[in-house]
Amino acid sequence: MKWKQIPLGPLQTNCYVLYDSDKNAVIFDPGGDAQILKSWLNENKLIPAAILLTHAHFDHIGAVSDIRQSYDIDVYLHEKEKDWLTDPNKNGSALFIGNSSITSAQADHHINGEGNLTISTFSFEMYETPGHSPGSVSFYHSESETIFSGDVLFSGGIGRTDLPEGNHQTLLNSIHDKLLELPENTQVACGHGPVTTIGTEMDSNPFLNGF
Question: What is the C-alpha to C-alpha distance for residues 86 and 61, in angstroms, rounded to an integer?
Answer without folding.
Answer: 11
